[in-house]
Each structure stands twice: as C-alpha cells, then as structure tokens.
Design goal:
Distance between the termini: 82 Å
Helix content: 55-70%
CATH topology of the largest domain: hpI Integrase, Chain A
Radius of gyration: 22 Å
CATH superfamily of the largest domain: Intergrase catalytic core
Number of domains: 2
Structural class: mainly alpha
Oligomer: single chain
Number of helices: 13
Largest sheet: 3 strands, antiparallel
Strand order of the largest sheet: 1-2-3
CATH class of the largest domain: Mainly Alpha
Order of helices and strands: HHHHHHHEEEHHHHHH
Shape: globular
CATH architecture of the largest domain: Orthogonal Bundle
Number of strands: 3
Length: 307
C-alpha cells in the first residue's frame, strides 16, 4: 500500500527527532497546520507539480482572507512582500521531507519539482535606542513574567525567538558568558552574551522554581517550556507606543545585529554572533545601515587632513 503524505509526515517528524534534526518545532507546525491538511491521504509518490501550485494558490488566498479583504493599500503592499516568504518556509519543509523520504528509502525519487516564490528584499526594521528603552520599561511592567527576560535576551544576543524559549539551564555558562544552542538554524553553536546579560540571567535563574530545567518553563506545555510569547510581546509593543505590525519578535534579532554593525563590529564577527550561515546574509544589514560607513569615511578624512 502506497505511503500517504499524512503517514509520511508523522514518520518524518519521529525520525527527524531521533536524528536530532534542526528547526523541528517549526517543521511540525508547518506540517500540522498547513501541509498535512492540504495533501492529506494523497500518496507521497503521487504528489505532482500541479498539486504544489494549487497549494501555493490556496495558501495565498488564506493569508489574504486572514489579513482582511478591506485592508488599506499600504497594508496590502506589505502583505505581498511577506506572504511569499511565509509560504516559502512551508515549501522548504515539504522539500526537506521529500529529500529525507528518498534517503530513508520510502520513495525512489522526488515526486515533483518545487518552485518557490521570489521574495523581495524589504527594508530591515530595527529599534532605536529610545525605542528599546521604552520597550524594556513596559516589559518590566507587564503581567507576563517571562516577556521582560525574553526581550532582554533577544536584544543582547540576536538569538531567534525559538532559540531563546528553548534555552535549557544546563546550557547556560555564566562564567564563560555563553549559551549553548544545540539545534540552531545554522547548526549547533555557542552564543556569546554580554556581562550585563550574564548578571541578569544569574539572578533570574536563581528565582526560577526549584527543579526547573528550562529558562522559560511551562509545565502545561508538552515540550516543558513556553512555545509562544507572541501575545504578551504584542501587548508590550503597543504599550510602548510602537506599531505591532512592524515590531515583531524577530525585530529583536534585527535590532541586535543592526546595532553591532553600526558600532563598527567587523562582519565576520557579527556573523559568528548572529549564527548566520553566510556572510552575504550579514552584509544585508551593512547595506541598509550607513552610520558605520559614515563613521569610517570620517576616519579617512581625519587621516588625510594630516597630509
């Protein structure tokens, strides 16, 4: 009997977990919420390019409906740049499942070619020093006790939001000022932290319930730690007088990387801190932020004036 996509997805997640696969939380989410409901019991080997194009069309329609048909023109323009990226991440999960299915001998070859949307390079949104101060201040006052440490860690490390929520206490080394991230997007890495963050985390960890294994524990969650902090983050953003549609959780990462670049830190070092796979991805921040370039030109001018 042919292996259905639904069964393949279940087996894929189990085996990927056993192998220590990366980004497992988001792969599970994209499969369960979108890919499995669409492809369902279709045999994995029978999925066609036509099926995938239908999936892409349906997802675009779902996102448009969710955003609201009467959305203003500027919001519609924004949606056109963000929707393809969302769907591309889902297609990447589908592609990875195809590859693993071949590797594990479930199918002999890829059933279909996957064509992803072309994504526009939008301008990077980051917080100014004053905006950061307001966000931090209102995070301290929020009813959710985890949102303040989440924001502090994001701003002072550039870690991705799920990397932050998945921190295990045993992976925090305050003496060496590092956080071990075993399943980062770009591979296992040691995340350096500031002295200020090390001191903050020491007091924060000391106040956690006895026996806690996670920095952001959640006994009700199957994983044992908080899986989503979107609602309290959005609440704090609004309280700080910022636009919640522009300032999202990933903005913390953009902010940290941008300020590293503006501070004149060399790009290879920024790449190491941020955990990006390639230097090209880091160069995007340099291209869109000219403060460090102006400072460099000022140094050149100062040197030439001595001639």
């Amino acid at each position: 009997m042919a292996l259905s996509f639904r069964s393949a997805a279940d087996k894929y997640l189990v085996k990927l977990d056993e192998e220590g696969g990366k980004d497992l939380v988001m792969k599970r989410r994209r499969l369960s919420l979108h890919l499995v409901p669409f492809f369902g019991d279709v045999p994995l080997s029978k999925i066609t390019g036509y099926d995938i194009e239908r999936y892409k069309k349906q997802r675009l329609q779902e996102i448009a409906i969710r955003g609201g048909i009467a959305r203003k023109a500027k919001d519609e323009a924004k949606q056109k740049t963000t929707s393809p990226g969302t769907i591309n991440r889902e297609l990447a999960a589908l592609s990875h499942l195809f590859n693993k299915a071949i590797e594990w001998g479930w199918i002999g070859s890829r059933p279909a070619k996957i064509k992803r949307f072309q994504e526009a390079q939008g301008r990077i949104t980051y917080l100014t020093i004053d905006q950061m101060k307001r966000l931090i201040e209102f995070a301290k006052q929020d009813q959710n006790s985890q949102i303040y440490p989440f924001i502090i860690i994001g701003l002072e490390t550039s870690m991705r939001h799920m990397e932050i929520l998945s921190i295990r206490l045993e992976h925090v080394n305050l003496h060496q000022r590092t956080i071990h991230i075993p399943k980062a997007k770009g591979g296992s890495r040691e995340q350096s932290i500031t002295q200020h963050l090390a001191e903050f985390m020491e007091s924060y960890m000391a106040a956690l319930p006895k026996g806690s294994k996670w920095l952001f524990p959640s006994p009700a969650a199957r994983e044992g730690h908080t899986m989503s902090i979107r609602k309290p983050f959005r609440r704090v953003v609004i309280a700080a007088g910022l636009n919640p549609d522009e300032v999202v959780r990933h903005t913390l990462r953009h902010t940290a990387i941008t300020h590293l670049v503006q501070a004149g830190v060399d790009l290879p070092t920024v790449k190491r801190i941020s955990g990006h796979k390639t230097l090209i991805m880091v160069e995007r921040y340099a291209h869109q932020n000219g403060e460090h370039i102006n400072a460099a030109m000022d140094k050149l001018e100062s040197r030439y004036q001595k001639i």
